[in-house]
Amino acid sequence: MLTIEKLRTYKRFGGDIDGFTRSHGRGDSSGITDADWQEIDELRTALHITFSGKATPEFASQVERRLAEAAPESEAQRELRQLAASVR
Q: What are φ and ψ of residue 26, in 5° steps?
């Protein structure tokens, strides 16, 4: 499950898992795992595609379902959407 704490850790390191790993997660109590990191990366990209208007309705619906399952807290969903909006 993706929590607001895990998303804030991801954001603090700018999505750079190598930077997080090199810091040995010092000061991090979120419990984020490599699998969580990958899921955030994938959801962030998928949400960005939907925001761009290039997604089919089926894809957008699938992304929304996956988001609700992965991050059931509305605050975590909001944070993920903000991360997706910042993709370049």
A: -50, 130
Q: Which two tokens stand for residue 31?
A: 């419990």
Integer Cα distance of 70 and 88 in angstroms: 23
Tens-digit pLDDT profile for residues 1-28:
999 999 999 999 999 999 888 887 777 8
Neighbours of 38 (CB within 10 A): 11
Question: How far apart are alpha carbons 47 and 20 in whole angstroms?
Answer: 23
Q: Which residues of 55-75 are buried (b: 16+ CB within 10 A; e: fewer)?
A: beeeebeebeeebeebbeeee
Q: Is the separation of the CB atoms in 25 and 10 below 8 Å?
A: no
Query: Which residue range is the domain that position 52 belongs to?
Result: 4-85
Assess contact for 84 and 11: CB atoms under 8 A. no
Number of domains in the chain: 1
